[in-house]
Design goal:
Residues 67-216 form the RecA family profile domain. With 454 residues, the chain is an alpha/beta fold. It has helices at 76-82, 102-115, 129-139, 154-164, 189-206, 227-231, 330-342, 370-382, 408-417, 431-453, and strands at 8-10, 16-17, 33-35, 91-96, 120-124, 146-149, 168-172, 210-214, 234-240, 246-254, 262-268, 271-274, 293-300, 303-315, 323-326, 352-358, 390-392, 395-396, 402-403, 422-424. The chain folds into 3 domains: 1-37; 70-276, 3-Layer(aba) Sandwich (Rossmann fold), CATH 3.40.50.300; 293-453, Ribosomal Protein S5, domain 2, CATH 3.30.230. A hairpin with a 5-residue loop joins strand 1 (8-10) and strand 2 (16-17). The chain is elongated and about 80 Å long.
């Protein structure tokens, strides 16, 4: 008789093979191929089970909409991302880089929920209760309605839920909790799947909002099986640069609200603070007009934020001029330089070093900032300061045309609200006309300064 061998199966996508491999040939994931159970070839039929009266199907019109309404968490920027608040029974996954402030944000959410009269259970699987208490002392998140527990076993966490009967549950983090019902170490796909599915099932049965902290891998994706993102209702990503105090929360998936909202926060010595109006964070504080600067209005989710773009053009004797960028796409800057030299008549850029950067550490990845980058480079090239009242937004094509961008009316209204009276957009027609208009305004500004000096 031929010996029956157990095939190996990928825990991510279900791909099978007769021998073990380190990398799945289907989904290209490493370390997900494990030995599966022996296939018997017997097809078992599933018998229908009796449905309890409490779980019987109901007409959709008889279900109360108030039971699934959003409830504010107390943190306005977090509620903005969630679509108005936390829905009872919702499972929310918050992921982000290590040290970005995930635990600090959720501790603040838990403290404000406890201050509003709700009982909150905060389960820390990474820190002790004394360490969480130290952070709560620093951030002012102390309240008698907030219960702390340091547990890594799933069964013990379920016992804590039965004992405390919370109205909000926070688990930090799902990758460090293990279950005895599943084999493997904490953090492996089978363990993460078992822990997440059990906690989500309990949350749905009890109408208990669940906030989970998720780790990310080195390439920025959420650690664990892809199934984790399908199980939860909301997936939020916490972004931020270690060099700056600004933090952004984005919704990558939201079953109860939009996915184009962005919440702004600032990390301070006393914890995390909301930034409801971040309009002045990405503008330089100096009031004197300097050449090589231009303001654009970027769109972050549904928010229109003014961002200052700075450029510096200097002569060089090197055979290969340098192109150094920070906060913008290098390929788009190279394209804009070519368009300026070929279509706008700005010759000599190929013989000079060009530096382009944004203020405040913000990243501009949308093409709507092309026109502002072009005006800043032209201003630095001509050494003519653009007035503070001028803002530009628009996409530049290779033909030198200015294309319209999304939410142009919202950008224009935000710019006018902040005092920008001169707007360069698609109505300028071409990048040559827009740059010429900006340079004329810059020249007249310089003449007025000379007249005032003498």
């Amino acid at each position: 008789m031929a010996r029956s061998t157990s095939p190996y199966r990928c825990t991510e996508c279900g791909w099978t093979t007769v021998k073990w491999v380190g990398r799945c040939a289907e989904c290209q994931q490493w370390g997900t191929v494990v030995e599966a159970a022996e296939q018997t070839g017997i097809v078992r039929s599933v018998q229908a089970a009796a449905v309890p009266a409490s779980r019987a199907a109901q007409p959709i019109s008889s279900i109360r909409a108030e039971d699934s309404a959003h409830r504010p968490s107390g943190v306005g920027e977090f509620d903005r991302v969630l679509g108005g608040g936390i829905v009872p029974g919702a499972a929310i996954l918050l992921s982000g880089e290590p040290g970005v402030g995930k635990s600090t944000l959720l501790l603040e959410v838990a403290a404000r929920a406890a201050a509003s009269g709700r009982r909150v259970l905060y389960v820390s699987a990474e820190e002790s209760v004394a360490q969480v208490r130290l952070r709560a002392d620093r951030t002012g998140a102390l309240h008698d309605g907030l219960y702390l527990a340091a547990e890594t076993d799933l069964a013990t966490i379920l016992g804590q839920i039965d004992q405390v009967s919370p109205e909000l549950l926070v688990v930090d983090s799902v990758q460090t909790v293990s279950s005895s019902a599943s084999d493997g170490l904490p953090g492996q796909p089978s363990q993460v799947r078992e822990v997440a599915s059990t906690l989500i099932r309990v949350a749905k049965e009890r109408q208990l909002p669940l906030l989970l902290v998720g780790h990310v891998t080195k390439d920025g994706t959420i650690a664990g099986p892809r199934l984790l993102e399908h199980l939860v209702d909301v997936v939020c990503q916490f972004e931020g640069d270690r060099q700056t105090a600004l933090r952004f929360v984005r919704a990558l998936k939201n079953r109860f609200g939009p996915t184009d909202e962005v919440g702004c926060f600032e990390m301070t010595g006393d914890g995390i603070a909301e930034v409801p109006d971040p309009s002045g964070l990405f503008l330089s504080s100096g009031r004197s007009e300097v050449s090589g600067t231009c303001v654009t209005v970027a769109l972050e989710g549904r928010r229109a934020l003014p961002v200052e773009v700075q450029a510096l053009v200097v002569a060089t004797k090197a055979p290969q001029p340098r192109r150094v960028v920070n906060g913008v796409d290098p390929s788009r800057v190279a394209m804009i330089l070519a368009v300026l030299e070929r279509r706008a008549g700005l010759s000599g850029l190929g013989e000079r070093d060009v530096y382009v950067s944004t203020v405040g550490g913000v990243r501009l990845i949308e093409p709507g900032a092309d026109l502002a980058i072009a005006v800043a480079i032209a201003s630095a090239m001509r050494d003519a300061a653009v007035p503070h009242t001028l803002a530009a937004f628009g996409e530049i094509s290779l033909a030198g045309e200015i294309r319209p961008v999304t939410a142009a009316k919202q950008r224009a209204s935000e710019a006018r609200r902040l005092g920008y009276t001169t707007l360069l957009d698609v109505e300028a027609g071409s990048v040559r006309a827009a740059v010429a208009h900006a340079m004329r305004a810059a020249t007249s500004t310089r003449e007025r300064e000379l007249d005032a000096a003498f």
